Amino acid sequence: MENNPLTQLINSIQYLFPLNDEEVRLLESNVTVFNAGRERNIINPLSVADKLFFLEKGLVRSFYQKDYKEINTEFFFENEFFTAFTSFLTQEKTNLYFQCIEQCNLISIP
């Protein structure tokens, strides 16, 4: 599993609670690994967050716009999970952007 791009994700989850081999296979078969360039939006306002993301490599910020200014709300670093959590839990639209500050390697979890 050392060369597996999901190693960091699985290790992060197993830090919280153990996964058996079947659970690891289920996780591996249901996630999407992808790359996103600088300034790419991963989540946009007026959308419903329906995925959880794991940031394997890179840096992501969340922000909203007010009076033509961008107001940062949070920064996400390597080996962290992120999404618009309120939207994810309520299935209501978010007012936040989630944007890559640099080239990112991400894992999308449905």
Helical fraction equals 10-25%
Radius of gyration: 15 Å
Order of helices and strands: HHEEEEEEHEE
CATH topology: Jelly Rolls
Which word captures the global form? Answer: globular
Report the major sheet.
4 strands, antiparallel
Unreliable runs, pLDDT <50, ≥5 residues? none
Average pLDDT figure? 95
Distance between the termini: 22 Å
The structural class is alpha+beta
Would you write up a description of this structure?
The chain is of the alpha+beta class and 110 residues long. The protein has a single domain, classed as Sandwich (Jelly Rolls), CATH 2.60.120.10. Helices cover 24% and strands 38% of the residues. It has three helices and eight strands. The protein has helices spanning 7-16, 21-30, 85-90; strands at residues 32-36, 41-43, 52-57, 60-66, 69-76, 80-82, 97-100, 104-109. A four-stranded antiparallel β-sheet has the order 1-8-3-6. A hairpin with a 2-residue loop joins strand 4 (60-66) and strand 5 (69-76). The longest helix has 10 residues, at 7-16. The mean pLDDT is 95. This is Cyclic nucleotide-binding domain-containing protein. InterPro entries: cNMP-bd_dom_sf (IPR018490), RmlC-like_jellyroll (IPR014710).
